[in-house]
Amino acid sequence: MHAREIGNGIHCIAMVHWERRLFDSLIPLPDGTSYNAYLVRGNSATALIDSADPALQEELMRELEGLGHLDYVISQHSEQDHSGAIPVVLKRFPNATLVCSTKARDLLTTHLHVPDEHIRTVTDGQTIDLGGKTLQFVETPWVHWPETICTYIPEDKCLFSCDFFGSHLATTDLYVTDQARVYEAAKRYYAEIMMPFRKVITRNLEKIRALDFRKIAPSHGPVYDKPEFIIEAYQDWVSPTMKNEVVLPYVSMHGSTAAMAKHLVAALADRGVTVHVFDLAVADIGKLAIALVDAATLIVGTPTVHVGPHPAVHYAAHLTDLLRPKLKYAAIIGSYGWSSKAIEQITGLIPNLKVEVLGTVLHKGMPTAETFAQLDKLADAVAKAHHQDELVRT
Ligand code: FEO
Asked: Whose CA is nearest to atom 3 of ligand 1?
């Protein structure tokens, strides 16, 4: 995409990665992604904020081709999807100074082999004057690496936020035009990348809110020209409030666990509890992450493979533990052929989840009337816990 103006002398260079379907060889990207760099021209100096993933660095360099000089490259975040093209940018503009946080210095030299003499570090509140435009740096650690900073230009009331508020979305839109679509993509992004750092993000959000901005320009996805939309969404996601929702990922090999899961879903629905169900054999793991942002309860359903949980359940449980959602309650249901340690093993996979276990139902073979009665009791326990926490609005 060619550079497009988002403010006086400020251009967005969006490198759109339409065909990318996986990030970090882990995160599904159903709608692709983009890497946004921003070119800021002052009266006396020019700066580039962030760069691009190496896969699309030629696109970036084409957009910078006619640029006479570049004085600063601002690296807000050292992960390679934003910093990966910095070596080629510095090769083209050898006199440019690479600006980053103190913690980023080591990361940029070790990950990209950038010569240390190119680097100038900045701390919270420090500024660089471009002539009629001021770059003011805001330390926002752990969104989602320890070194991350945002950049604020007070003259234009514009905040450059890198991953913070970003969305994995390949689009020609410069600004958000479809809020519902961006909300879903940004929530997926938050769930997969930011959620483990919810508490520190809450503090960073407060810091950001103190600035007077009219636009947020992230380094993934479209620019927010009505930024209150994404600020309010983040406020909701990081808040300690949970919803009257259960997330139920399960796998079934011969139908027993599926029959139990389906009975439990209906029983919970009868009791006014919303359930998000994921058959892990086919589920988009990103949608599971999204559902975990708000839910109060996790119920894992598994068959038994060699006395332990199914490998897909093992993976989902470990991933949930890494993402550290708010979750207050948990339960495990499942089935087995002759013997099972699935419950003990799943419990051991989620040490980071400080949850109260509301029950376990493990059945040998196909479920019976007695199994379904146990599942009804579990549904009672979940609904009661949600009621006691006033998650249910009547
Ligand atoms: Fe978009 Fe953490 O990189």
From this structure: 79
CB of 20 shorter than 6 A to ligand 1: no
Indicate the pTM of the whole model.
0.96
Closest CA to 162 of 132, 200, 189, 182: 189
331: closest CA among 310, 302, 306? Answer: 302
Q: What angle do CA 358, 238, 153 make, to 5 degrees?
A: 170
The yes-or-no verdict on residue 394 having pLDDT over 90 is no
Query: Could you tell me if the CB of 192 is within 6 A of ligand 1?
Result: no
Contact 294, 233 (CB under 8 A): no
pLDDT in tens, 88-108: 999 999 999 999 999 999 999
d(C-alpha 152, C-alpha 164), whole Å: 13
Whether residue 77 has its Cβ less than 6 Å from ligand 1: yes
pLDDT in tens, 50-78: 999 999 999 999 999 999 999 999 999 99
Q: Is the pLDDT of residue 292 over 60?
A: yes
Q: What angle do CA 108, 111, 113 make, to 5 degrees?
A: 75
Cβ of 82 closer than 6 Å to ligand 1, yes or no, is: yes
Backbone angles phi, psi at 274, to 5 degrees: -80, 135
Whether pLDDT at 19 is above 60: yes
CA distances from 220 to 51, 82, 162, 211 (A): 11, 9, 7, 21
* C-alpha span between 337 and 172 (Å, rounded): 52
User: Distance from the CA of 81 to the center of ligand 1, in angstroms?
Assistant: 6
User: Does 144 sit behind a cis peptide bond, omega within 30 degrees of 0 on the bond before it?
Assistant: yes
Whose C-alpha lies nearest to ligand 1, atom 2?
79
The whole-angstrom separation of Cα 67 and Cα 62 is 10
Q: Domains in the chain, ordered, with CATH?
A: 4-238 (3.60.15.10), 246-385 (3.40.50.360)
**How far, in Å, from the CA of 192 to the mean position of ligand 1?**
11
CA 235 / ligand 1 centre spacing (Å): 20
